[in-house]
Amino acid sequence: MLGLEEGAPAMRPAVSILIVARNTGPFIGDAILSARQQTCRDIEIVVVDDASTDDTRAIAERHAAQDARVRVLDGPQTGLAAVRNASLSAARGRWAAILDSDDLLHPAHVARLVAAAERTGATLVSANMVSFNVDEGLTRTALFADAPEWRQERDIDLLAFVRSNGVAAGGVSTGYLKPLFALDFLRAHGLEYDLRLRIGEDYDLVARALAKGARYVFLPRPTYFYRRHAASTSHRTSLRDLDGLMAAADALPRLTGDAAVLSAVAHRTAGIASAQAHVRSLDALKARRPAAAIRALGTDVAAWRLMARSFAEGGAKRVARLTRRSVAAGDATPAVLVIGDEAPGMPGHRVIVRAAPADDAARAALADGLPPLERIVVVPPATQDDAGYAMAPALTRVIQPHG
Question: What is residue 371's predicted lDDT score, i.e. its pLDDT?
Fold first, then answer.
């Protein structure tokens, strides 16, 4: 592992890694550690704690005591967008990299984004993601953008960005990606997060930046780990959240007269209206008012489809709870992941061997199905870079070469 004792960054570091947090104690320590372990050392890590009532603040301050690049600030306590704006205002870097407090970064994440930005002249750069969750002791992973068109570097223009972010668009929702922003561009154009938004705030900021002339480059190699868990904001969409999206929907039409973009915005707005009807119907069902639930859906076909999806997902979750068994629970033997072509002898350890990943799908799957690991061993032709893709189940464990 890289050494973690660090001096203070330069007056203007290359990159500000921005983390906003409220009651994410189970995860924020790993998030900050993944930021501290970046191969790009010229960074600052700005943690804005928005009045957490758990141990989030204490964990962040322990990291700040160990690493002068970490700053812990108070949030404004007026909503998620305001907290994100506080982090942007505090950032001193040329670039700002967004890291949610329950997510993780591959060690080369920041270095690769900055290199791509400098090579292409892009204003925003994002990497593909590995979505993951830890369930009953096992890690489950998937590549976020896995369709053929996402397997190569590409520009994302405003039209493509809006089209991919409809409420029920299907495919890859690019608003979930976590870009590296050129801070001078945001400040020159007066761009910040919309205070009306609690969800979709990243999408909204990127869309307005694109409308102002930003260039957005996507990198297919996944270096951001997006954690899915029961408390994720994306699992708790409320009518208030959707009302905020609707209120902010007129921002783009004021910035562009492009007919195709305006059509895409109108389609997205219609999708938000369908989602509002869906949530009203769900609320009525929870209140045991089936007639009101049907009235809320009305003749909105998209809302009925969303309701059907909710029933299907709910049924699948119930089946999974009934049939799920913990593979790791019955085996207390320390697990070691060996990445490479051979398995070194390790008496008293459960050795799991996986080949060095050959493509992005294999990188995303490197940690899939793994239990907690005691350490990771790298055997040629595997590299330390490959080991970064097993960070999700073993972030703080020892990574060592073999031989």
Answer: 87
| Burial class for 66, CB neighbours closer than 10 Å (0-12, 13-18, 19+) | middle
Contact at 8 Å (CB) between 19 and 48? yes
Cα angle 100-101-107, degrees, rounded to a multiple of 5: 75
Q: What's the rounded mean pLDDT across residues 3-14?
A: 68
Measure the CA–CA gap between 25 and 34, rounded to whole angstroms: 15
Q: Which two tokens stand for residue 53?
A: 């009532």
SS3 letters across the chain: CCCCCECCCCCCCCEEEEEEECCCHHHHHHHHHHHHCCCCCCEEEEEEECCCCCCHHHHHHHHHHHECCEEEEECCCCCHHHHHHHHHHHCCCCEEEECCCCCEECCCHHHHHHHHHHHHCCCEEEEEEEEEEEECCEEEEEECCCCHHHCCCEECCHHHHHHCCCCCCCCCCHHHCCCEEEHHHHHHCCCCCCCCCCCCHHHHHHHHHHHCCCCEEEEEEEEEEEECCCCCHHHCCCHHHHHHHHHCCCHHHHHCCCHHHHHHHHHHHHHHHHHHHHHHHHHHHHCCCHHHHHHHHCCCHHHHHHHHHHHHHHHHHHHHHHHCCCCCCCCCCCEEEEECCCCCCCCCCEEEEECCCCCHHHHHHCCCCCCCCCEEEECCCCCHHHHHHHCCCCCCCEEEECC
Q: Which two tokens stand for residue 70?
A: 């970490």
Q: pLDDT tens, 270-313?
A: 999 999 999 999 999 999 999 999 999 999 999 998 899 888 87
Say what the pTM is: 0.89
pLDDT of residue 358: 94
Confidence bin at 317 (pLDDT 50/70/90) = low
Q: Which residues contact 197 (CB under 8 A, 6 or more apart)?
A: 80, 81, 204, 244, 245, 248
Question: Tokens standing for 66?
Answer: 């160990």
pLDDT digits (tens, 9 = 90+) for 334-381: 888 999 887 777 788 888 999 999 999 999 999 999 888 888 888 889
Contacts of 72 (CB under 8 A, 6+ apart): 47, 49, 57, 60, 61, 64
